[in-house]
Amino acid sequence: MDRLGFPKPARHRIRPALRSELAAVRAIEREAAQRFAGTAEAWIAQDPPAPEALLDARLEAGGLWVACLDGEKPVAALRFHPLEGGLYIEQLDVLPEFAGMRLGAALLDRAEEVARLAGLPALLLSTFRDIPWNAPWYARIGFEVIDVLPPELEALRSEHLARGLDESRRVFMRRDIHQPDTAG
């Protein structure tokens, strides 16, 4: 069972990505973006995946993880980095044919372990408010909308605006990390 009591996907493995898998991670992002076709955010389906240089930087910093089923071929990927106030989830992608297997949730649970070990208080992210597999899905797995953004998230919002994102359609969310009680 995962942290919310849902069954974990069968035969999956969560691990740091390998440099040889950067092209596969980009392909996962490209395929996952196709789910946006036919939504108000259809432009995402045409948006290029993250540049390999960014993926390489996240890989070097320990912030690029993959989920593999029945072997070693990645079918989902998570990109994150520490930010004042928490571990910021930059990107979470699952190949559409593997959606619904809780691989995204498993990757987020692993990110929570990383954050806990680093002493960070929360997982943070920005996502689309009304896309079913965005904010509504994150809310179902314990994330809450942040009503008043701290300065580090305001800075990210400014970056999003500079890139042309419509921030009126997006929300920032947080899932608190419960640190183990060391007293005793």
Summary tags:
184 residues, alpha+beta, Aminopeptidase, 5 helices
Please provide a written account of the structure.
Helix content is 30%, strand content 25%. The protein is of the alpha+beta class. The chain has a seven-stranded mixed beta sheet with strand order 1-2-3-4-5-7-6. The longest helix has 15 residues.
Topology record:
Elements: E1 12-16, H1 22-33, H2 52-61, E2 64-69, E3 74-83, E4 86-94, H3 103-117, E5 122-128, H4 135-140, E6 144-145, H5 151-162, E7 170-176
Parallel strand pairs: 4-5
Antiparallel strand pairs: 1-2, 2-3, 3-4, 5-7, 6-7
How many domains make up the 3D coordinates?
Answer: 1
Number of helices: 5
What's the CATH class, please?
Alpha Beta
- Summing up helix and strand content along with how strands pair, one would put the structural category as alpha+beta
Strand content: 25-35%
CATH superfamily: Gcn5-related N-acetyltransferase (GNAT)
